[in-house]
Design goal:
It is a single chain. The protein is mainly β and 118 residues long. Helices cover 0% and strands 55% of the residues. The protein contains no helices and eleven strands. The protein is globular.
């Protein structure tokens, strides 16, 4: 079992920045590829970014490419999402997701709200 706790969300003006954090506990963090997803009101969950277990491979959803950066610190069991040049359409609940590289079992955090005002 893996527990994921997100933090760092809040209210920010358009053009501003936020950094989200997700701390994992319960299993060896480096066994997991890590992802960020988001869900806006009345919309489905959307892929934001992913990072491999070692951190040497990342990918991003088209809406956030060039503005968001995913990173991880395996020594701190933490994955980050640096969000720059935020837009009102980035408003959503952001979720951390861990996927085991061995079993493909995945875990989700409770989410953190990001609100971008225009």
């Amino acid at each position: 079992q893996v527990q994921l706790v997100e933090s760092g969300g809040g209210l920010v003006q358009a053009g501003g920045s936020l950094r989200l954090s997700c701390v994992a506990s319960g299993r060896t963090f480096s066994w997991y590829d890590m992802n960020w997803f988001r869900q806006a009101p009345e919309k489905g969950r959307e892929f934001v970014a992913s990072i491999s277990r070692s951190g040497d491979s990342t990918s991003y959803g088209d809406p956030v490419k060039g503005r968001f950066t995913i990173s991880r610190d395996n020594a701190k069991n933490t994955v980050y999402l640096q969000m720059n040049s935020l837009k009102p359409e980035d408003t959503a609940v952001y979720y951390c997701n861990a996927v085991s590289v061995y079993t493909a079992v995945d875990y989700w955090g409770q989410g953190t709200q990001v609100t971008v005002s225009s």
